[in-house]
Design brief:
With 215 residues, the protein is of the alpha+beta class. The chain has a single domain, classed as Sandwich (Jelly Rolls), CATH 2.60.120. The protein is built from 5 helices and 13 strands. Strand 2 and strand 3 form a beta hairpin. The protein starts with a helix and ends with a strand. The N terminus is likely disordered. The structure holds 2-oxoglutaric acid and manganese (II) ion.
Amino acid sequence: MALATSTPSIMQSSLFDSKHVECGLNILPKDGLTEYVPNLLSEHESTHFMRRLETSVVWEPEQLIMFGKKIITRRLVAWVGDPNCSYTYSGVKKIPQAWTSELLSLKNQLEELVQSNFNSCLLNFYHDGDDGMGWHSDDEKELDPVAPIASLSLGAKRKFAFRHKHDKTIVSLYLENGSTLIMRSPTQQFWQHALLKTKAVSSPRINLTFRKILT
Ligand SMILES: O=C(O)CCC(=O)C(=O)O
Ligand SMILES: [Mn+2]
């Protein structure tokens, strides 16, 4: 793992200094604004960040309270952010871990891309296609409802879907290694989203959703 300790230059110079990245078209037909940016990171950069993140944050199973029962997921999570960014999700309060240098670097570059600031990031580690995430909206009361959420994908390509809350329209796409999905207001108000489970994927994936908590 030669890259792990000796390549800060990847983080400082790679993403936007040398290439111009544009946001894409809106993938939702109505009631939201969500753009998909493939290849934001190169294969090399994605591998670098994935390896670093596997060991530089503290991963733990997610604890959810559903129908009054505590559920512990196989999928692992890490909540990272500014010290005042606690977040209650599915009935469990999360206290943030401190930013690491590589997360700060990604945050800065995504802030430049979306032209908005983030103060926190939820990381999810999916071991393989048996791990997924059910239908939900990122609309908890602590989240700034008008701030965008930038979702960076590393590792295995996985199918992601949106479902309209009223007419149940489905829009799905594959989230590729190194891609970013930018969900802007009012996407969370009208659409739920999910990461679908599949038997066809046997390798891991890390997803990072950069968010803005109201403080
Ligand atoms: O893994 C993904 O692509 C989505 C994760 C997600 O929806 C979330 O963290 O709220
Ligand atoms: Mn979400």
